[in-house]
Amino acid sequence: MTQLVLDNVSRWYGNVVAVNDVSMTIGPGVTGLLGPNGAGKSTLIAMMAGFLAPSAGEVTLGGAQVWRNVGAYRELGLVPEREVSFAYLTGRQFVQASAELHKLGDPRGATQHALEEVDLVDAADRAISTYSKGMRQRAKLAGALVHDPGVLLLDEPFNGVDPRQRMHLMALLTRMGEEGRTVLFSSHILEEVEQIARHVEVVVSGRHAASGDFGAIRRLMTDRPTHYTVRSSDDRRLAAALMGQRSVRGVSLQSPTGTSEVHVEVTDMGDFTRALPTLARDAGITVRELTPTDESLESVFTYLVQS
Ligand SMILES: Nc1ncnc2c1ncn2[C@@H]1O[C@H](COP(=O)(O)OP(=O)(O)OP(=O)(O)O)[C@@H](O)[C@H]1O
Questions:
Q1: Are residues 288 and 166 part of one domain?
Q2: Cβ atoms within 10 A of the Cβ of 165, count?
């Protein structure tokens, strides 16, 4: 009942194709839906949650179509990206409204339980307008969890959340996954996904670009030409030594701000980052800084869709 299946799903808005023929299966545990802004993540999540009808294809949960299926809504919890619009309510009132909409037998008890789950009991009787971003996310999560759904969908849950709250939220999602729920969250940040997702689905420009465990996705993203900037105690000698490396395609000495640095183009990131410390040590050079210069997710995605 907790397996979401997307079967050749597309969604267009007028002549904008937001999601283009996507098929994927999301099962128990934590899945990261990774993609740059505008990739179609929110549209996909809205279709998975039964809030939006696919223009073509279908989304099923446990074999039953999600769209306009009240039974499926009882199994699904959605944490949307937008803020809760009734910020004058207290956290408790907001969560209880959700419990009542679900017509739960004991809405007060379920509300208390959900607030405990997200660790928001202490602030539960304050207006949401006084909450931090992380607390608002937890209030939304409690609202989505109150009916104890088997599937939890979260749209960019870590956006704007401070590091401590982010860790808290990550631990919470990990626990939900370990409890056997199907947890899917979207993100455009690789490191976020890496930390908690057991499985990753990548979407780019509305298309399904890759799927697999994080190692596989990471390899797909790292086995590509990459550029680094290196600063060291002897850049000229380091540049000469780097030229002898198998994984190095090009080296240039630059001095953009008066201080020198080496720009390196490598064909295999893993090989290069393993080789560099040994090479520098053998040459008696101290590496002071190593910075990837095209690590932005946009460049990774561009590479993925081209390949
Ligand atoms: N209601 C709408 N009407 C018209 N176009 C839309 C609508 N909703 C989304 N789009 C377009 O569909 C594409 C996918 O948008 P979507 O919000 O699903 O992407 P996303 O990956 O969630 O992006 P972001 O991270 O920026 O929210 C974009 O080109 C967007 O402009």
A1: no
A2: 18
Are 252 and 171 within one domain?
no
Higher pLDDT, 305 or 258: 258
- Contact between 173 and 141 under an 8 Å Cβ cutoff? The reply is no
DSSP character at residue 90:
B
User: Each residue of 87-124: pLDDT tens digit?
Assistant: 899 999 999 999 999 999 999 999 999 999 999 999 99
Q: Check whether residue 74 and residue 57 sit in a common domain.
A: yes
Q: Whose CA is nearest to atom 5 of ligand 1?
A: 13
Burial track 30-52 (b if 16+ CB lie within 10 A, e otherwise): bbbbbbbeebbbbbbbbbbbbeb
pTM score, two decimals?
0.77
Atom number of ligand 1 nearest to Cα 43: 18
ipTM, two decimals: 0.93
Domain of 230?
Answer: 224-306
Check whether residue 51 and residue 164 sit in a common domain.
Answer: yes
**Separation of 209 CA from ligand 1 center, angstroms?**
17
Residue of 6, 13, 34 to test ligand 1 pocket, by largest number of atoms within 8 Å of CB: 13
- pLDDT tens digits, 183-203: 999 998 777 888 899 899 999
CB under 6 Å to ligand 1: residues?
A: 13, 16, 18, 35, 37-43, 188
Let me know whether 213 and 228 are in one domain: no
Q: Whose CA is nearest to atom 24 of ligand 1?
A: 37
Overall average pLDDT of the 141-157 stretch: 95
